[in-house]
Amino acid sequence: MTKRRFKNCKPVGANLSLGNSLVNCIEEKRKTFNRSRKDSDGHQFQNLDNAIEAKAVDSRTHESAMDEFMATAELAGREFNADKNHVRVLSAAEKASVVTKKSFNITDAQRAELESNLPIPRRPYKLKWESTEELVKAENNAFLEWRGKLAAIQEKATVMLTPFERNLELWRQLWRVVERSDIVVQIVDARNPLLFRSVDLERYVEEVDPRKRNVILINKADLLTKDQVEEWRKYFVDNGIIAVFWSALIAAQKLEEARRQQEEVEAALKAAQLRGSSDEEEEEDELENKAVPEGSTSEAVAETVAEEIIPEEIPFIHDAHELLTYLKGHVNLDFVNRSVTIGMVGYPNVGKSSTINSILGGKKVSVSATPGKTKHFQTFIIDETMTLCDCPGLTMPSYALNAGEMLINGILPSNQMQDHFEAGVMIASRVPRRVFEIIYSILLPKTVDFETDEGYTNGIDLLTTAAFAKGYMSTSGVPDYSRACRMIIKNVVDGVISWVKAPPNGSQKDFDTSSFKAILSRECKGNAFVLQQISKRNLLEGTSGKLNAIDKNFFNPNVGAAHTMGVYMPKAGANNKICLKKPKKDKLRRTYVHLDA
C-alpha cells in the first residue's frame, strides 16, 4: 500500500507528468482523426475550435507589423514556406518624437483634403458574385484594396491617420445595418463632432440607395454651455448638415424620475387600500390625477421646454418621444407606407446603446464604460411602424495628430494606451493649470519665465504631481505615470474635465473660457507639501526646480568669503556648562556642501 498523498500536494518522480501525457495523447488522437475525415468533395472538416474562432468578433485597431502581414496574407489566401538559407537582421529601433503644442495645429485646407479622401470599405455589388464563396472572396479583395488606399494616403499626408478598425467582420455588420436602414443616424460626441463624423459614410449610404437619409445625432450635448451649442448650431446650419442635439443622460434621468413617480403612486394606492379609510375614493381620485398617463414609456417622459426647441432649424431634444418624431419626419416619403428602420451607427463609446435604452424605456442593450461593448448588430421593434437597428461601434479612419487624441476622446480604451506621456502632454496643453489644481487639490509648478506664463503646465509635471497626490507609486519608488494618466483620461471622457472643441473659424479661447468658468469659480485647496517633495527629488520636467535651488543659494546672505580651519575654543553647552570635548573633524567639502552651486 502506497503512502497517502494529500490533494494539495503535487505528484513527484515518474508520476509528475503522467496525467499531462495522457491528456496530450488523447488530444493528438482527436486531431489526427479530424484531419483524416473528408467529405465527398475532398475538403477537410473544420474542428469545433476553428468554428468558434471564426465567429469571434473583436475590435482590432492596433496591429504589429507581423500581425498586419499575417492578416493580409490570410485575406489574400496566400501560403508561405520557410526559407532558412537567406537570413536578414532587422532593427527594431524606432524614432521617438516629442509632442509639442505647435504640432497640434492643422490648417483648414489640410482638414478639407483629408475629409474628402478618407474612404470606408464598400461591400461588393451583387453583379460581382453569385455564391457565398465568391462573396467572401470579393469582400476580402475589396478590404485589401481599401487598406492599400489608406496606406497610400498616410504616406502623402502631413498628419497621421487615427487607428482604424482592421477587423473585416465588424465592417460586415455596418454593411448589413446600412442595407436594412431607411434612415441612418450617425451619433457623434458633442465635444468634438467633426472628429466623430464620417463624410464618406454619408456618401456610402446614398450609394446604396439614394432614397436613404443621413442624420447626425449630437449626443452628450449636456456637457456644452448654451453659447457653445449656439455656435455649433450655426455651423451646421451654414453648411447644410441635418443634425440634432441630444443627451441620452438627461433622457435616462427623466425616465427614471417618471418611473419613480409611478412607483410612488402605486405604493400610495396600495397603502390606501390596506387602510380601508372612509375617504379612500377621494384619495384614489387625487392620486390618479397625479399619476402618469398611460401609453408608451417614452411618452411618459416629462415635457420639454418649448422655447428650447427650434423645429425649423437644429433643435435640442431632451425627450425620447420627440426624438422618434423628429427622425420619422425625415424619412423619405417612399418608405412611409411600411415599417421604417432607423440605423444607429458611429464610433465606440459615443452613446448608441444608451440612446436606444432611453428610447425603449429600459435596459435592452448592454452598456459599458469600455468602448466596443456591442459585437453584433441588433434590431428592436418599437411599434408596428418603427424599428431600431443598433450597429457595433466602428473606429473609422479620420485625421488626427496621434493616438493620444483618440484616448482623451474615448474612442480607444485606456487599457490600450501605449504612450501615456503623449496623452498627458495633449491634455495639459488644452486645460488650464488652475483647473487641475482645483479638481485634484494640488499645486502645479509654474514656468521659469513668469512673464510669458500662459496659465498651462506640461504633461510630465501634471502626471508626476497627480501621481504623488493620489499615492500612485511604482515598486521602484517613482511615480506611476501610466496610472495617473488613466485616471485623468477617465475624468476627461466622463466629463469631469470638460474640454469642448470650437467649430472651424471659431475662437477656441472663448470656448475654453466658457467651459471652465464654473470650475475656476471654486476655491483651490491644494497643498504645497507635494510640490516641495517633488522638487527635492528633481522629478519636475526641465530645470525649473534646479534653477530655483541655484538662485536660492546664490542670493544667500550667509555665504562666507573663504573656508579656513580656525582654532578650537570651548563653548557653553547645556545648563551653561563648558564642554571641552572637541567635535569630530570633518572635511571642508562636506561641512560646506550647502554652499556649493
Automatic annotation (TrEMBL):
Source species, domain of life: Eukaryota
Listed name of the protein: CP-type G domain-containing protein
Organism of origin: Rhabditophanes sp. KR3021
